[in-house]
Structures are given as C-alpha cells and as structure tokens.
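Fresh eyes needed here. Have a critical look at this protein's tokenised backbone.
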Amino acid sequence: MQMVLRSLSVAVGLVLALGCGGSKEPAHDASHEGEHAEGDKHEGEKHEGGHEEGGEHHHPKMEGAIKSFHDVLAPVYHADKGPGRVDKACAATTSMKDEAAKVAAEPKGDAAAWKTDSDTLTKTVGDLETACKGDKAGVEPALEKVHDAFHALMEKAKG
C-alpha cells in the first residue's frame, strides 16, 4: 500500500510539473520597452529579419534615432493583430514620421545606402498613414512594410 501511495505521489508530481512547465509564455505586453537591447529577445510573427513564430530573435544594440523609432514601432508591431493593433498603428503614424526623419538625419555606414533605406522607411510610414485614412484594410500590410524597412536600416546601423 505504501508503495502504491509513493507511486501515485510521484505520478501526481510529474503531472503537475509537466502541466506548469508546458505552458506558453504570456502574450507580449505592448510596453516591452528596452527588451531589444543587445542579447535580449522576443517572440513574434514570422517576418523578414529573423523573427520566427514561436522563435527567438536577437536585435543588435540600438541607440539614437534607430532606438527611438524602434520604441515607437515595437509596441504597435508586437500587439496582437486585429482592430486594436490597427488603431495603435494609425495613432502612431505622426510619431513614426517624426522618428523616421530623425533616422534619416543620423546616417550609419554608407551614406548613400542609408539615404535609400531611410527614404524607403519614410515612404512606408507615409503609406501606412494613407492606409489609415481609408477603410483600414491596408493597415496591416503597410505596417509589415514599415517593419521590414526598419529592419533593413537596423542591419545597416549595426555595420
């Protein structure tokens, strides 16, 4: 009888450990400021630049205008897809435009390549703003393009 109780206790302990240990991490909080410093990671949707659904991605250390733009984009981009994220994206377009102008003014590496990519970032933010003025069906794809343009610049910034 004692052996049965001991076996049952072990089995219950294993079930509890597996049940707790197998849970997913909580969804991203829209205010994950500072998480993308060197060595930090996050989970995200699959997109160009290394984030894979359920995977990890490490951003290089960011500073200056690149970090400021990221601080505006990240809470929007990493919010759950849906009407709330669309509203956040549209509300952030003015800040994104301001920060994109600052990014353009702080070239890193090859100045000509930086200008080309920062012009792309500015254009994609403008396209996002335009999508927000319509029926908003184009907001999600426009936000993806802003994000991809940002990542292209971030890669150049790390040299």
